[in-house]
Amino acid sequence: MPTPQISAVPPAPHAKYDRLIARAKSVPPARTVVVHPCDETSLRGAIEAAELGIITPILVAPAGKLAAVATAHKLDISRCEVVDAAHSDDAAAKGVELIRQGRGELLMKGSLHTDELMRAVASSATGLRTARRISHVFVMDVPSYPETLFITDAAINIFPDLDAKRDIIQNAIDLWTSVGLGTPRVAILSAVETVTSKIPSTIEAAALCKMADRGQITGGLLDGPLAFDNAIDPEAAQIKGIKSAVAGRAQILVVPDLEAGNMLAKNLTFLAKADAAGIVLGARVPIVLTSRADSVRSRMASCAAAVLYTHARRSAATLPAA
Question: Contacts by 205-209 with C-beta closer than 8 Å and gap 24+?
């Protein structure tokens, strides 16, 4: 197989996100429960996504505080349904209940802490859990890399075991295919590319690849263990003599634990000037889970990915049974 060539000219900033948002504009908007959008960035992200026709928002927040933010930043919320809540914890509980009632197709985090929202989502009695493990995917637009890059899981599962990693990978593959990117190349990362008992993540990587061979993970091409360099750089893979459809051209990076994933995503954001959108999968509906420091652009891309995922699920639900 010839070594893939990476263009020396980096793509235009935001080009990958622009394509994602354009795809989302071509499908019906998703009914979106926005929890506690009580700062400019989170409210503006929801309003601009609505203006583009990507979402139809239901804003769940203290009504007075929400109105004050909208007035201060000249944001028109008159066409949005508003559900009053006493505070951020109450907004999270009411937002999850709206999803359980079937009034929303996806959930969007506002200016509350992630733990507040995820506590309501993960509640065994009143939450949104399914049989699938809940996990997070960073949708990265790295200017120097030709591919859209997913990193998982860098926000929810701290030290996932083999079964959890199976779900983490399947969630990411499902998102990749749902947003219309084709069959993903999945690299399971470790510190080295050889299997050794001294590094347990290499053994898990090998097991996960075998699970894919046996149909326990579907929809993607898996390889691992791979070190970061030979996962994303064709020359590094060639030097190490690694021959696979994934090495040097990975599109989904599966990290061994949250610490590694969080550092990797933040390194790309602050050193490579990458944009990072965020989606949580494995619950009843996709969850747009972004940092309070994220730009409106990143929030828009998160919305777009979640909307495309939702649309794919709608389409699958309407297909006739085999």
Answer: 207/162, 208/162, 208/165, 208/166, 208/169, 208/254
In this structure, the strands spanning 135-141 and 149-152 are antiparallel
Question: How many residues appear in the chain?
Answer: 322
Domains assigned to the chain: 12-129 (3.40.50.10950), 130-282 (3.40.718.10)
Provide the mean pLDDT of the chain: 91
Could you give the CA distance from residue 185 to residue 130 in angstroms, rounded to a whole number? 26
Find out whether 224 and 189 touch, Cβ atoms under 8 Å: yes
Whole-Å CA distances, 262 to 4, 108, 138, 156, 166: 28, 21, 10, 10, 19
The owner of tokens 């909208």 is 70
Alpha-carbon distance of 59 to 91, in angstroms, equals: 9
pLDDT tens string 149-161? 999 999 999 999 9
Q: What value does the mean pLDDT take over residues 204-212?
A: 97
- d(C-alpha 259, C-alpha 20), whole Å: 28
Q: What is the pLDDT of residue 320?
A: 52
Q: What is the pTM of this model?
A: 0.90
pLDDT tens digits, 70-95: 999 999 999 999 999 999 999 999 99
The count of C-alpha atoms lying within 13 angstroms of the C-alpha of 120, restricted to the half-sphere facing its C-beta, is: 23
Q: Which residues contact 49 (CB under 8 A, 6 or more apart)?
A: 32, 55, 57, 299, 300, 303, 304
What residues does 281 pair with on adjacent strands?
135
The beta strand positions in 19-121, using DSSP E, are 30-35, 55-61, 81-84, 106-109
Q: What is the pLDDT of residue 68?
A: 97
